[in-house]
Each structure stands twice: as C-alpha cells, then as structure tokens.
Design brief:
Layout (H helix, E strand, L loop, with lengths): L4 E6 L6 H15 L3 E7 L14 E4 L9 H12 L3 E5 L1 H7 L8 E5 L16 E3 L2 H9 L7 E3 L20 E5 L8 H13 L5 E5 L8 H9 L7 E2 L7 H6 L3 E4 L8 H8 L4 E4 L14 E4 L4 H12 L2 H14 L5 H16 L1
Parallel strand pairs: 1-2, 1-4, 2-3, 4-5, 5-6, 6-7, 8-9, 8-11, 9-10, 11-12, 12-13
Helix pairs in contact: 1-11, 5-9
Length: about 350
C-alpha cells in the first residue's frame, strides 16, 4: 500500500513519555513514507514539536472535554479517507472508537493501565511495545493475530564525548514526579549512599502534577539529603543532552512499558540502573548494559548505584554496550516495521 494515510491522535496536555511517544510516532511514520495527520490538544506542551508539520489539528478542551471533537474528526476522516487511526492514551481511544466505521482503530499500548482492556471489542488491532503487554492483551481475550510488536523508537545522535574524570559522579533521572516513577525509592537509596559516605550527586528532571517539585524537595530534606546531594531543576528542554552529561541513568519505576527516557539513556551511552518491571528486559540485558533491581527495593537500588559509582571502568564498559544496544531502537528500521505492522492489521 502506497502513501498510507494515518490519523495520529493524542489528547494529553502535559509532558511525559506518552506525549513524547506521539511525537516520535508521527516522525517515524512520516519517515516511512506515510501521510500523517496528528490531532493534539490545543495549548498542549508538545505543540512546538509539531510546528514543522502542516497536517495538525488542535482540539480546544473545555475542562477535559472538547464537545466539538467528534464532529471535527468525523469531518476530517470523511474528507481525507484515512487508512487507519492510531490512538495514544485513554481519551484518544474513547474518542476514536466511535469513528471505526470510517477507518480502523489501532491503539498503541503505552501502559498496562489502559481502560482499553475493558473495550477490546472497540478496536481493530493493537500495537504493543513489549511481549509482556502482548501477553496482557491475550490473557484479556484479544486475538494474538491482531497484535503487532513495535518498540518505541528514538533518533540516535552522535556518540557523546568522554566524560570528565569526576571525583563525584552524577546520577541522572527523568520523569514526572508521580508515585509510579518511584523517585521516593531513589531518594531513600541516595540517603543510604550518603550514610555510607559514597561520593555522588543526583539530578532528577521532572515536575509533579501541579508543575512543581516542592513535595519531593521536602522528602529529600526529611531524609537528611541536601541540594548538594539531590537537585530537582524541573523539566529539561534537552533531555538527550542532559543524559549525555551524566555518569549513570537511574529509572526506579514501579510501573513502565518501554520508556523513551530509558532508550535515550542507552543512546547517550549511559550505564543503567533500573527496576525489574515486566517487559523492560527487552530494553537491555542485566549485567551488560546495566543492572536490574527489584521494584521498591531501596537497598538493592543503593547497592547497584554504589557498585557503579565506585567502578569507573565498569561504567565505561556498560555505557559502550548501551550505545550499541540503542541501535535496536533506531527510528529508521523501527519506522518501517511500524508502517508494515499497520498495513498487516488493516489488510
């Protein structure tokens, strides 16, 4: 099928993995030769990422609802006759399920908490990021032959220059300051490192649901940590550059699917310390590109960070392996897999 016409919908307004994923999906499908029209929320944090794209519809929300959205998207679908609707997130799926008579609906399953598990009769196929989520859908009753595995993709830049020989290595982390990201566990691990007098500095880029960092700064202080130990600078406008500047990337999540930040850390040549969330074993191998620890275990997290903090040669070896592993998620081959997966689901 030539010139595949795709409607790419995501209605979140914030900043995070889901928002990054819809931008990456548009870029990947465009690279694969598809004609992509993206539907995003007006005044959303990702608007600037679509400035170079002419095919963008912005929906004005009234609270969390845009009452005109179904009519505007229905008109768009009728006028252009799209081959498929790609939906990211609960709101996108709920909106698009009423338009399936105009184009097949294929959600991308970015999380295991989607309401989609209760609406499997409302979709025509599904794209999953890991085998773990494929199993979740199959166990919920969705046909395996209607599922395609396509990992998140990233644009892999040049290799980072050699890091300075720091006496105090830097641990970097990225993500929304919400419970499922596990940054409270990371703070507890940092407190343990400080008690053992292990040299480190941790930088955590992100904000909470209110757009602030106050609660986590308060938790940091209660644990006996200072701004010299752990800083919360808010969101970074250049996560790739930040990751290229740190010695270790830490992802202490309680729940993830296939984090864009994790893939970007691999591309940046960072050794990884990450919780053993089901599905993430597809991102890297324990002991090769990084280390896995049990979810909620501040003790294991502290021990693994300590090991890497005190072993520069191990960090360097794992970082080099991480960079090589990131090629598996390069946007060019993944974009073709993405396009071909959609074609196979709508054929």
């Amino acid at each position: 099928m030539k010139n595949l016409k795709i409607l790419n919908i995501m209605l979140g307004k914030g900043v995070g993995g889901l928002e990054n994923a819809v931008v990456n999906a548009a870029a990947a499908l465009t690279l694969a030769g598809c004609d992509v029209t993206s539907v995003i929320a007006n005044n959303s944090a990702i608007e600037n990422s679509f400035l170079s794209q002419s095919n963008v519809m912005k929906l004005q929300s009234f609270g969390s609802i845009d009452f005109t959205a179904p009519f505007r998207i229905r008109a768009l679908l009728k006028n252009k006759k799209f081959d498929a609707i790609i939906a990211h997130g609960n709101r996108a799926v709920l909106l698009a399920r009423h338009l399936r008579h105009l184009a097949p609906l294929i959600p991308i399953c970015h999380t295991t908490t989607y309401n989609i598990l209760k609406q499997l009769d409302s979709i025509d196929g599904a794209i999953v990021l890991t085998d773990h989520y494929r199993n979740v859908l199959v166990e919920a009753g969705f046909p395996n032959d209607r599922i395609r595995l396509v990992p998140n993709s990233i644009q892999i830049g040049s290799e980072r220059p050699s890091l300075p020989d720091r006496q105090i290595p830097i641990i970097g982390a990225l993500g929304r300051l919400v419970p499922n990201k596990g940054f409270d566990v990371l703070l507890a691990a940092c407190a343990s490192l400080k008690r053992e007098q292990i040299p480190f500095q941790t930088i955590i880029h992100g904000v909470d649901e209110t757009g602030g960092t106050k609660e986590f700064i308060s938790l940091r202080n209660r644990l006996g940590l200072t701004e010299r130990d752990v800083t919360f600078p808010g969101w970074t406008t250049n996560p790739a550059e930040f990751l290229r500047s740190v010695d270790i990337f830490c992802m202490p999540s309680r729940r993830e699917v296939l984090s864009i930040a994790l893939l970007e850390a691999l591309a940046a040549g960072c050794p990884i310390v990450c919780t053993r969330v089901p599905g993430l074993e597809s991102a890297f191998d324990d002991g090769i590109e990084g280390l896995f620890v049990d979810i909620e275990s501040a003790e294991q997290l502290s021990d693994s960070l300590k090991y890497l903090l005190l072993n520069k040669n191990v960090r360097k070896k794992m970082g080099k392996a991480a960079r090589t592993r990131s090629n598996s998620f390069d946007i060019e081959p993944v974009s073709k897999l993405f396009r071909d997966s959609i074609i196979s689901l709508i054929s």
